[in-house]
Amino acid sequence: PFLLKLVNHPTFLAGEATTRLIDTTPELFRLPRRRDRATKLLTFLAETIVNGNTLVADRPVAVRTEPAPIPAFPKRPTPPRGTADIFREEGIEGLTRWIGQQKGLLITDTTMRDAHQSLLATRVRSFDMLQIAPAYAHLAPELFSLEMWGGATFDTSMRFLKESPWQRLADLRATVPNILTQMLLRASNAVGYTNYPDNVVRVFVREAVQAGMDIFRVFDALNWEENMRVAMDAVLAEGGICEASICYTGDLQNPSRTKYNLKYYVDLAKKLEAGGAHLLAIKDMAGLLKPAAAVTLMRALREEIGIPIHLHTHDTAGIQASTLLAAAGEGLQIADAALAPMSGGTSQVNLNTLVEALRYTDRESSLDTTALTNLATYWQAAREFYRPFESDVLPATGDLYEHEMPGGQYTNLFQQARALGLADRWSGVCRAYADVNRLFGDIVKVTPTSKAVGDMALFLVANDMSASDVLTSGKQHAYPASVLDLIGGRMGQPPGGFPADVTKTILAGEAPLKDRPGASMPAADMDAAREKAAELTKEKPSDRDAVTYLLYPKVFEEFAAHREKYGDVAPLPTTNFLYGQKPGDEIAVDIEPGKRLIVKYLAVGQPHPDGSRTVFFELNGQPREVAVIDRS
Ligand code: PYR
Fold first, then answer.
1. pLDDT class for 33, splitting at 50, 70, 90?
2. pTM
3. Which residue CA neighbors atom 1 of ligand 1 most closely?
4. Atom of ligand 1 nearest to the CA of 152
């Protein structure tokens, strides 16, 4: 058809075809590339129709196929002014001043990051975020920020969803220009599970700012401020908003837990403020901050530091709304919450009802009830697409304050335990987790240190060992790699260091690192990484691809190979991404603005002798066939 179109083109027929044809009629010459993309997408659909998507193999099936309802909103040329506009126009000083002027509690919506990381194994796709994004911009411009990037979303988007995290950021930024974007940055661990060379962290932050990131919540998994320096400085240098975190662990009210006391947190907060932080986060990743402790902590912090405070907690215990309300009573400026259908349990507190709880009080927010209800209605439906990734609800009991497991890890570790046949020994795993924490000297547990503690707990239970056996058995065991990393100092130093006997036993005499890991790590070779990444993507060399490759070489390589074979699958509706199509289904796929493919799946043929089957489609009304190998 391309050649036919070419020879039938009026210019060609008029005998004027020269190389100028390319310049005057570029649409003809773009066609093969577009068709190439269409073919790749049809191949993906055919593959999914015949063989299924391995992502959902052996998992509960999502039955919803109709799109989630997108609320109507007034059609204005631009969305109402929001926090991002204030930041753009008045800088960080203007934004901070504005925060100080607000009487109401400001709210960050975590639905697009931590909520699905905690409830749905981080599997929510950009497609479902982008469907509702314009409604956020127009209906909820009063939100302080949208947490929609970082943490585990970076690698899972490529690893499982086969979509670019950078594209997600850029698209959401463009669709919601008025609300601040926010991400979780694991300091020197960037968005990974181990410390990276300093230049990798710096390039990552620069690229994130350029792609549209505003607020960087920077935390160190051992609360080691020295290890936050590189990331914080990078955010400050690139013009981002630096929200430095104190990770909350232990129990301020427990007189026998003295390691993480009020002085510890206040001193840390002061250091972070002195280090240039624009905002302070209290990151309560395990939902351990009780209401009375929140009052004590807020009073001390409001006394001792001047920057606005942003409280993050997980509702694993079911009572964290009371903590947010208690903190709000003490002048908390910003709270994290998630829209109702994506809230509760290991996720954040219910945003809709939190807002209503403060209605008609002096901390009432300006967010609109109906607008938030409509956004929640969308997420209730959208969550149904992710049924395969729903995890068991684990009710927290009093032992939450014993094991102190982060919300994002709680359900995940249970699934790991079940995969090892240890589901019925779950309470033993929780006890082992607490014991390992004590063995390691009582440390902050959050990605990646929480993973090391969890890996060690599973290791002990699976080997019928107790934590004390580690020191007394006299045997050298093959401990998990994450444990060797942690105890070897490659994730940094906890306050007071690791216990010497533990280090000696676990490292079998190898000397641990005592300094900041980044200080002795050679800089990553950016030129080589750019070249290597470009080789994999067959695109122009870029720092963005290079840094992605440096963070996750194998994941990036597999993602690039998927791209090469199937094109960009992010524009597919989630139902079709996970399950393909049913015969007769017709879908519209916007492969880029203004370029829509209408794909109708007709039928699949019987297997050919070579094991392949022909899948019949109509693409924009034209018959198309794709052959795929039936692997069943
Ligand atoms: C993360 O690092 O992904 C957390 O949510 C703590």
1. low
2. 0.93
3. 151
4. 3
